[in-house]
Write a structure and sequence with these properties.
Blueprint: H1 2-31, H2 35-45, E1 50-59, E2 62-71, E3 74-80, E4 86-93
Antiparallel strand pairs: 1-2, 2-3, 3-4
């Protein structure tokens, strides 16, 4: 009887861990952004402009986005994580360093 109870407890624990993993995966898939949303975030941060370069890198379950934007005499190099957070921003005026 004790072995049966231990097996039930182990089964419950394994089931709970699997349920937590599934819930975490659903949350990640729901919160991540796509390329169009990342572009909109980058263009908002640069107050518009023209995207002259876009790179998408796959980091596990989500992508990371990198945009080079020119807006008038200002340039922007913006990196956005898979959840829409700006992780790196460089900006300047004059000659564009990425030509």
């Amino acid at each position: 009887m004790n072995n049966m109870s231990a097996k039930k407890i182990v089964g419950i624990i394994i089931g709970a861990v699997v349920a937590i993993c599934i819930i975490a995966l659903i949350v990640i898939m729901t919160l991540k952004i796509d390329s169009l949303e990342a572009q909109n975030i980058a263009l908002q941060k640069s107050n518009g402009g023209e995207i002259i370069s876009e790179e998408i890198s796959n980091e596990g379950l989500w992508n990371e986005y990198s945009y080079k934007i020119i807006n008038g005499d200002r340039w922007y190099d913006i990196e956005i994580d898979g959840f829409g957070n700006i992780t790196d921003l460089e900006t300047g005026s004059g000659q564009y360093p990425f030509y």
